[in-house]
């Protein structure tokens, strides 16, 4: 017999969903079968599969050691994912950490989730889970991304360390209550400040076309505010601060390209010729977009907090080279 006590991170979920996560090599049908045969007890009673777990509940599984080991054995992984390379989280990239949140200044070229690309490089969330593996009090919950970001963009990325924090932050994100500020180095010069309100539509399974297009009829509302911090008349590049009122995939990239001021080295939404020129003369190898500031309501403290992320070395050096030093 195996005994498990429910803590906060595992509460408020259905019994069958909890057991499916706990018994990683099982199926829902098997969970239902075990329950029918009275091999699952909650607080010494048989309950329905839909029962919502509460803090302090005790779950007993009437399985012997061999049965339990078989049902919890990790599933086979594919060859490409079984030999990943990468490094642990750099402590200098941690902006803030408490018992609820972990905020990181993500380096470019690091994927945030292993499902985003077929690669042998370790993802950011895998690094985070390795970093936190012995400090979490949960049977089924793992540190989870609150949001995603492009592989070659550097920015502030937020990870929830508890289920409660994740639920709260996802709701804040859905209701556009998280303030996001970005710095972008763009092609051509703009005048001072403006607002871009163009609806965006995602093309599912896009292959030979961009994933996001402007569609004023069928698209979702998207609003980007920008302010020019400095123009360089020789290179005709600009340093912009962008503030999002909504959070759509590729929003800044598509919006800026639509007003002919694209992010430098954005191969998807701008000229590959222009990008090749920049790579040859300025050694640029990624789209020059960086999330440097985020403000939100803390999920536990219930006060507004703000965090900053320093520019990565490649963007900082380029700003010096083209006379667009940060203001």
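Sequence proposed for the structure above (327 residues):
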């Amino acid at each position: 017999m195996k005994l498990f006590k429910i803590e906060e991170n595992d509460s408020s979920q259905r019994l069958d969903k909890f057991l499916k996560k706990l018994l990683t090599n099982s199926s829902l049908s098997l969970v239902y079968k075990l329950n029918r045969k009275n091999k699952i007890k909650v607080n010494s009673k048989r309950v329905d599969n839909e029962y919502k777990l509460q803090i302090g509940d005790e779950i007993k599984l009437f399985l012997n050691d061999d049965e339990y080991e078989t049902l919890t054995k990790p599933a086979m992984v594919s060859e490409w994912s079984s030999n990943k390379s990468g490094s642990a989280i750099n402590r200098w990239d941690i902006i803030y950490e408490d018992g609820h949140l972990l905020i990181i200044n993500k380096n470019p070229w690091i994927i945030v989730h292993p499902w985003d690309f077929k690669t042998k490089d370790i993802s950011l969330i895998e690094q985070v889970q390795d970093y936190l593996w012995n400090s979490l009090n949960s049977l089924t919950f793992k540190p989870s991304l609150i949001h995603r970001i492009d592989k070659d963009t550097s920015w502030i990325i937020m990870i929830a360390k508890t289920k409660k924090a994740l639920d709260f932050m996802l709701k804040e994100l859905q209701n556009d209550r998280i303030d996001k500020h970005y710095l972008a180095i763009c092609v051509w010069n703009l005048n001072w400040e403006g607002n871009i309100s163009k609806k965006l539509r995602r093309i599912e399974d896009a292959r030979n076309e961009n994933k996001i297009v402007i569609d004023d009829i069928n698209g979702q509302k998207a609003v980007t505010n920008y302010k020019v911090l400095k123009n360089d008349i020789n290179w005709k590049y600009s340093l912009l601060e962008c503030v999002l009122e909504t959070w759509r995939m590729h929003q800044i990239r598509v919006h800026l390209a639509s007003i002919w001021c694209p992010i430098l080295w954005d191969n998807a939404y701008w000229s590959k010729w222009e990008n090749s020129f920049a790579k040859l003369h300025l050694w640029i190898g990624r789209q020059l977009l960086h999330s440097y500031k985020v403000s939100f309501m803390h999920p536990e403290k219930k006060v507004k907090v703000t965090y900053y992320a320093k520019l990565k070395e490649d963007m900082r050096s380029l700003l010096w080279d083209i006379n667009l030093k940060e203001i």
